[in-house]
Amino acid sequence: MADVYLNNKFVGTVENPQEFRQSLIEERRKGAIDKNMNVYHNADSNEVWIENSKGRVRRPLIVVKYGQPLLTDKHIQQLQKNEINWSDLVNQGVAEYLDAMEEENALVAFYEHELTKDHTHLEVSPIAMLGLISSLVPFSNHAPAARINAGSKTQKQAQGIYAANYAVRMDMDVNILHTPQKPIVNTIMHELSDYNNHPAGQNVVVAIMSYKGYNMEDAIIINKGSVDRGFARSTYYRPSLAEELRYAGGLTDEISVPDKEIKGYRSEKDYRLLEADGIIYPEAQIAESDVIIGKTSPPRFLSGADEYSLTSNVRRESSLAAAHGEQGIIDFVTVTESEEGNKLVQVRVRDQRIPEIGDKFTSRHGQKGVVGLIVSESDMPFTSSGIVPDLIFSPHSLPTRMTISHLLELLAGKVGALSGRYVDGTTFSSEPEEKLRQELLSLGFRENGVETMYNGETGEQMEARIFIGDMYYMKLKHMVANKIHSRARGPIQLLTRQPTEGRAKEGGLRLGEMEKDTFVSHGASMLLKERFDSDKTLVPVCENCGMFAIHNEYKKKSYCPMCGDNVEISYVEIAYAFKLMLDELKALGIYPKLMLRTKY
Asked: Which of 41, 76, 94, 566 makes an SS bond possible with 89, Cβ 3.0 to 4.6 Å?
């Protein structure tokens, strides 16, 4: 007897669990039981588990009987002619979905030639174990799983053409690559996903070598000549919008050029680009703090008397200006209505982005890195046939990561570029390396992909042969222009008087506990003194009671609220955050007495 559980609940017992499991599966294949059901017989505990709950990960497999797959050539011909589809195969019981539990009772073959009498299922294709993006990685069966995951993640961040109608869309934080290309080395998924209509990278000549140490730590070196010819050039789009909101009492915002009488009026220079309707014109060149949409709002707080007064009812400035560090050209202006029927103005800013030091690039194999140096074409190394690489990649990035797929793509890309064809790099069913090597040899190159190279500065022949080929490289959305951040002084928070947080708020760079520890270990105490004074403040302290005293600037005198006038008061430099903590302790009824000692 075996216990039977349905969705983790005990529902009864069966005498022959193996027969019971098989009959359930047969009924499911006939369509008598829901296709979402999976069943598992645990022989060790003698239990049968049945699951049909939502949210399980299930994968499709071809059913095998007596060592033969149920999917025949006839089925494949019908699929190719669109006479049947995948759902029909599932309904006929030719294919079925298994979850991790039922897979415990299954023996799955990778390929048809591996099938034996014991096999229960056959993989549709080994590439099915990968997701959509992971299956775009060529030769990925020659790289560790962690690198394929990294390659998948970075491909999602690559710049390309995300939508054909990007020119009329108002999407946030968008990048468009100017000349994206279809990869020379592709996989079956490039065809299936129609990748040619939304490519996200470029085919470039890559040499694997060190160059003056500027490509250590995964950095890459790019050729200035390639950049000048348009390599990895992109446009960054960012929309801004302003709405004429309605407030209680019939008051509304107004999109217009603000008057000088209003509260918070900026300078005339800030409003110089606005037209008569208060909206900027297309193709205007803007920089930080330039007003894009002029807007005024009613005063925030109206007292009882103000409501009836016309003179004091001054409107306030609430224009939309270019954010800190933002610049570009006004690309698109649209005036429309919001869902509430209010006037809505949307303005899109575009900014051309030319590759610079700090921009992030990646191949499809998780080999990401930032630009470490842009070298003029005349100083780049070159091959005996005069080929100058677009990009120099560090050899130290390969041994520990074991991304042989990266090297294979370089070799295959070289073959594809020279013979003018696309190379199939589909996982588990790619063109064999031997065939690619032989083809490269027949094209007049060394079959192992290396070439003799010459120093671009001295013209000397390099001692080692350099591995060089073509591969697909992608520019990622992480650009230094969006991240560069520094400040000497700027806005502070109201409560703690410490610098604000974040690049958008012109914030400071925090030197935290761990950074402090590194300075302490180096004995750099004066540097710590300099770093930790972002909220330094001078406070008068009563030497008698140890509480904060009061300094009256108008009368030019200090006194203690507890001890009176005739007491010694000293000024102490402390962090404002510490003063805040003492105030909060006082609010808890704790007496924080400051004991002062004269410094000799």
From this structure: 94
